[in-house]
Amino acid sequence: MPRTVLKRLAAVLLCGLVVLPGGAAPAAAASRIKDLASIEGVRENQLVGYGLVVGLNGTGDSLNNAPFTRQSLQAMLERLGMNTRGANLRTANVAAVMVTANLQPFATQGSRIDVNVSALGDAKSLQGGTLLVTPLLGADGEVYAIAQGPLAVSGFVAKGDGASVTRGVPTTARIASGAIVEREIEFKLATMNSVRLSLRNPDFTTARRIAQAVNDLLGQPVAEPTDPSNVRITLPQKFNGNIVDLITDIEQLAVQPDLPAKVVVDEASGIIVMGQDVRVSTVAIAQGNLTVTVTEDAQVSQPNPFSQGQTVVTPRTQVTVNTDDKRRLGIVRESVSLRELVDGLNALGVGPRDLISILHAIKAAGALQAEIEVI
C-alpha cells in the first residue's frame, strides 16, 4: 500500500478517535416557524348571532321569566303569517340561544363552519332541540354566515321527585358544519410584495433567529426583525410574485425559540410552572408554621343544696400555640439546571402553598434570577 494512502487512513482513524469519545452534540429543541409565528392577515374572524331552538321536551324557557323568548317567538310566527299578539303562549319547548362561530381565513361562499349554541334564558336542557335559521354577524354588523340544524348536546340532566343528576352542561351544544358562509372577507394575499410574521411569544432573540434562518435559506437579506413581535420578509424576484411559495418554504424552517426565565404562579389553585432557564443562587431557608388553637369548653356550675344560688354556665378557654420547632434551616444550593433547582426545593419538604411563599421570599432576597408572574 502506498505511503500516501497510509497517511490518509491514519488521519481518518485519528479523527474518529477524537470525535467518538465526546459523542455528537445534542440537537437543540427547535420548532418550526409555522408554530412560532402567524402570517399577517391570515386570521380567523369571530361571528355571533341570536336565535331560537325548538323541539325541546319541556326543558325550554319559561315565557313568563324570559320575555325576550316570547317576543322572538311571536316575531317569528308573524313572519310565517301567524298573528299571536295578545295570545297566552305557554309553551316550554322553545329556548332563546346565542350562537357563536369562527370564520376561517379565506373561507369561500358555500363552505361550512362549526357553530356553538348556548342557552340565554332559564332553559333546563337543549337536548333534542333544533336551531332555526340564525344570521351570524361580524364585528362590522354584516351577515357572514347562516346557521341552522339539530343540536349535539354532550351533557344531560335527569331528575325525579326526590333527586336529580346532571352531567356536563346540558345548556350548551354544538352543530358540526352547522353554518353556511354567505359572505367572503376580502384579502388578496397573492398580490402582496412582502409579508410580516407575527411571533406568538414576542422575543428579540427569537425574532432575530427567524430572520437569520430565512436569509440563510434564500441566500439574500430579505428578512428583517422590526421589533420583538414582527419579522418583515420581502418577496425575492426568483419567486415571480408568488407569495404563497415563499410562505410554504419558510414556514418549515426549524428555529430554536429563546424565552425569558419566568416562574408562573397560580395563587388560586397553587400551581407553579418554571421555565428551563430559571436559576437560583445558594440560599438558606427556614420554613415553619405558627399554629394557634383556641378551644372553648362550657362547664355548668351548680350551687350547693339549700343555698338558694343559681346555676350558671362557666366557659373554659384553652389556647395552644405550636411554633413547629422541629423545622431547621435548609440550604438550596446554586442551581445550574431546572432539575437541580426542583430537587433543592423538594428537599425542603413543603407543599405548593408554602413553596409559593418561599419563591417570593427568594426573589425578594435577590437570589432568584427569574421573573415571577402571578395569574
From TrEMBL:
Keywords of this entry: Bacterial flagellum, Cell projection, Cilium, Flagellum, Periplasm, Signal
Question: Signal: is it a keyword of this entry?
Answer: yes
Q: What is its main location?
A: other
**Signal sequence range:** 1-24
What do we know about how this protein assembles, alone or with others? The basal body constitutes a major portion of the flagellar organelle and consists of four rings (L,P,S, and M) mounted on a central rod.
Query: What HAMAP family does its record include?
Result: FlgI
Q: What does this protein do?
A: Assembles around the rod to form the L-ring and probably protects the motor/basal body from shearing forces during rotation.
**Which protein family is named in the record?**
Belongs to the FlgI family.
User: What PANTHER family is this protein classified in?
Assistant: FLAGELLAR P-RING PERIPLASMIC PROTEIN FLGI (PTHR30381), FLAGELLAR P-RING PROTEIN (PTHR30381:SF0)
Name recorded for this polypeptide = Flagellar P-ring protein
Q: Which organism is this entry from?
A: Prosthecodimorpha hirschii
